[in-house]
Amino acid sequence: MISLGSLALGLLNILNYYLGNGTYILPLSVLIIEFLSTIFLLIAFRIAVKLIYFEIKNSSSEKKNIIIFGAGESGVITKRTLDRVTGIQQNVFGFLDDNPRKVGKKIEGIQIYATKDFEQLVERNKIDSIIMSVQSLGRLRKDEIVEMALKHHIDVLNVPPVSSWIGGELSYKQIRQVKIEDLLGREEIRLDEKDIQAQLFQKVILITGAAGSIGSELVRQVASYTPEKLILLDQAESPLYELQLEIEQAYGTNFAEVVIADVREEARMREILKRHKPNVVYHAAAYKHVPMMEENPSEAIRTNVMGTKICVDLADEFKVEKFVMVSTDKAVNPTNIMGASKRIAEIYSQSKNVGSKTRYVTTRFGNVLGSNGSVIPLFKRQIAQGGPITVTHPEITRYFMTIPEACQLVLEAGMMGEGGEIYIFDMGQSVKIADLAKKMIKLSGYELGKDIQIKYVGLRPGEKLFEELLADKENSLPTHHPQIMIAKVREYPFEEVLEKVSELSAVMNERDVLELVQKMKQMIPEFLSKNSVFEKLDAPSED
To answer: Of 528, 517, 542, which is closest to residue 332 (Cα–Cα)?
Structure first.
């Protein structure tokens, strides 16, 4: 209304000038200044009203106080990311940092506190969340910070690695609740990118078991090295189709070829290798579920041993440059059918290396986080259902590694292998499964014993309390990579191995599984069954 009045007065002034005596009622400069001042005041008033409204709406009493752990570059970027987001009721209360030189200073008006003063800070102030924003934070230190926060029922959030930021910038949506995988993962693995590139660039790569947890991640990582063609082989059509769509979207439609096939079908596998002539084969196809294989030993032999034998033999026949087999720490001093079958596969692959132009390499590692059938997805489901969480034994421990970490080391070991080696990975510290369950309950915002119970159900058939990376008579040699070692294992003559594997094949289809398992134990004397019906086949100790 004020602006309309100013315009009306201006119009009257102009009419008076032209229709009257050629003079203005008011000087023109006064009208212009009045008009501009009115516009400015109107805009300022509207802005002030909005600011007051949002300040009342997001009053400090309602805002959630957030502390950012890490006053470095990542922490500052995290603060700015939070500042840019409107409509969220949160306030960056302060920074926490381990560096005493930073403590007491301010970043963009926000105080930096010492991590050791966290307890006092929480007691004196209402802190709702802590965001971990240190890119190089070690696993143990990360665990300490999380424990410190959970003790006071404070939400813990995590900033992802810089490599996963969108377009090099951190998005608010990427700051998420910390997961158990974040606490079990380790520092970034350094790879010999140039040598891996030299092995894979413009080569034809075949990956068996491509739809599985390890196989699919191998596909993703190998694809980044620009092979000429990537052959994705598996029986599982649905996950294979999803993987194909993912790879095609990232690399184009002619980059990967999907092959539905069974590694146990020799004629089909021969046809595939003859047609594609792969330079490198990553053999990840296997049965890995311990209790199931304990009940189905013939299937474990059929896939894990005979399927591997077919792939190994065809790699030699079609002059594959390198054959990399994915194995498991359960092959070490095996106590179950699955582990024993993988150990036999290791022996066959290693013995085939002698006299072949193909270089056969084996990689051996422990449990991978989040893989199909692993304990973490099971615990998540059980927590979502209100519990209880089922743990087999209070003292059972396992080594853990993330799927990307495991696959990175498979590529690195595969690159450095000259043939005949069994590579083992530094799996870090073993983790007590009961402690893992307790931590997951806390991270989910529940209280152990009150909201969620832990139920101990006893060891499953073939299950060990502790996993091993080396057998009793094995030792290891270092490599140029600090996280990869070579297991020095007994070497078997190929003819002897072939004869024993042929014996397994001959009884594989018989109903008498005891004879099959007995032959497995004869081939691997260290195979001593645990919590299994096959314990009766073990020779009594002499002491």
So the answer is: 528
Q: How far apart are CA 388 and CA 391, in angstroms?
A: 9
Q: Which of 347, 354, 400 is nearest to 375 (CA)?
A: 400
Residue-level pLDDT at 543? 45
Q: Measuring CA to CA, how many Å separate 430 from each of 90, 168, 338, 407?
A: 38, 35, 21, 19
Question: Which of the 8 DSSP states describes residue 169?
Answer: B
Instruction: Look at residue 504 and tell me whether its pLDDT is greater than 80.
Output: yes
Record: fold of 64-178: Rossmann fold (3.40.50)
- As a whole number of angstroms, the distance between CA 226 and CA 259 comes to 19
Residue with tokens 């509207």: 46
Q: Is 330 marked active-site?
A: yes
| Mean per-residue pLDDT, 319-334 | 92
Q: How far apart are CA 66 and CA 157, in angstroms?
A: 10
Q: Is the Cβ–Cβ distance between 300 and 337 less than 8 Å?
A: yes
| 288, 330, 442, 464: the active-site residue | 330
In three-state secondary structure terms, 208 is strand
> Who contacts 417 (Cβ-Cβ below 8 Å, separation ≥6)?
322, 324, 359, 361, 423
Q: Which residues is 282 bridged to in the sheet?
A: 207, 324
List 400's β-bridge partners, or say none.
367
Whole-angstrom distance, CA of residue 10 vs CA of residue 27: 10
Domain-by-domain residue ranges, the chain? 2-57, 64-178, 200-367+401-425+471-523
CB 176 within 8 A of CB 132: no
User: Both tokens of residue 537?
Assistant: 């086949």
DSSP labels, 225-248: T--SEEEEEES-HHHHHHHHHHHH
**In the block, residue with structure tokens 């290798």:** 273
Superfamily name and number for 200-367+401-425+471-523: NAD(P)-binding Rossmann-like Domain (3.40.50.720)
Q: At 426, is the pLDDT very low, low, confident or very high (cuts 50, 70, 90)?
A: confident
Question: Beta strand 484-488 with 475-478: parallel, antiparallel or unpaired?
Answer: antiparallel
Q: Which of 157-166, 259-268, 282-291, 427-436 has the lowest mean pLDDT?
A: 157-166
Q: What is the DSSP string of 394-458?
A: TT-EE-EEEHHHHHHHHHHHHHH--SS-EEEE---S-EEHHHHHHHHHHHTT--BTTTB-EEE--
Residues 353-363: tens digit of each pLDDT: 998 999 999 99
d(CA 218, CA 403): 9
Q: Does pLDDT of 315 surpass 90?
A: yes
More reliable by pLDDT, 323 or 224: 323
503: nearest Cα among 530, 523, 488? 523
Give the phi and the psi of residue 81 in degrees, each rounded to 5.
-65, -40
Burial level of 197, CB count in 10 A (0-12/13-18/19+)? middle
Judge if 64-178 and 200-367+401-425+471-523 fold alike in CATH terms.
Answer: yes
Token reading at 138: 């070690």
